[in-house]
Write a structure and sequence with these properties.
mainly alpha, Arc Repressor Mutant, subunit A, Tetracycline Repressor, domain 2, 8 helices, 0% strand, transcription
């Protein structure tokens, strides 16, 4: 792919992330093109269908979250890194949930998702589990907590973040961290 083609693809994905997060299923590809500053033909040259665009946007978003989880995992303090990751993921939750909800119906194990989405979701879960295990290994998270527990709490926090009450959301994240035994 030529450099300008790759740059246009990235602009489309960035715009799609915002448009889908704001408008959900009602989002139009021409709005994505407008915000990306490209023609609708450029959008469809990169993504044959709206569903292809949604999937690519979800994969890109999951990859960004995974990269952040892995970046934080390199921290000298696994407890603080996990707390920071929880805050980041809780704030990112509404966009992630919206994108995942736009995908075809699927089971919790990913059945029904395309291979790239499944692989991105698996990598995200593995990074989250790794960060949790590192925090647990140094006593900075409760030993009995699982990645599934954390995922459920993050989904609940994502709903709270969607309400737009920043102070209440910050308190809720703090309560969850306290309950997980994670130092703040």
């Amino acid at each position: 792919m030529r450099r300008d083609g790759a740059a246009n693809r990235e602009k489309v994905l960035q715009a799609a992330e915002h448009v889908f997060a704001e408008q959900g299923a009602a989002a139009a590809t021409d709005e994505v093109a407008r915000r990306a500053g490209v023609s609708i033909a450029t959008v469809f040259r990169n993504f044959a269908t709206k569903q292809d665009l949604i999937e690519a946007t979800a994969v890109r978003y999951l990859e960004k979250l995974t990269a952040e989880a892995l970046r934080l995992a390199d921290s000298q303090d696994p407890g603080k890194a996990f707390a920071s990751l929880m805050r980041t993921l809780a704030a990112a939750g509404p966009v992630k949930m919206t994108l995942m909800d736009l995908l075809p119906p699927h089971d919790d194990d990913g059945t029904g998702l395309s291979r790239p989405v499944t692989e991105a979701a698996d990598a995200f879960r593995a990074a989250l589990d790794g960060a949790l295990r590192r925090a647990q290994a140094v006593g900075a998270a409760r030993p009995g907590v699982t990645g599934d527990d954390v995922s459920l709490l993050l989904r609940a926090l994502a709903h709270a973040a969607d309400l737009g009450e920043e102070e209440a959301f910050d308190r809720a994240v703090g309560i969850v961290l306290d309950g997980l035994g994670v130092p703040r």
